[in-house]
Amino acid sequence: MTVGDLLNLLSAYNPDTPVRLAVNPFFPMAHLLGGVESAVDEQGRRVVYIAESKEAVQFGPLPPAVAVALTWQPPAEGPSRRRRGATGPHTGQ
Length: 93
What we know:
single chain; four-stranded antiparallel sheet; elongated
């Protein structure tokens, strides 16, 4: 992804919309962004890094719909509900 790709994706949203960072596909969590920095990588290319907040604010689990949209989790359906029989002693009458 390039800066242009990211700007293009973000342009679909209201500029006042909060942004959070989704991390760890195996235990998806949402984090507060802390800044943007750049450096030169091993091949001499400029790379932009989006950082987590210095306070390491974690907002908790990523909403399941976001994890599915990122293809980190398959869509899940709730278990089917079957009518259960009555429980307790039978009087036999």
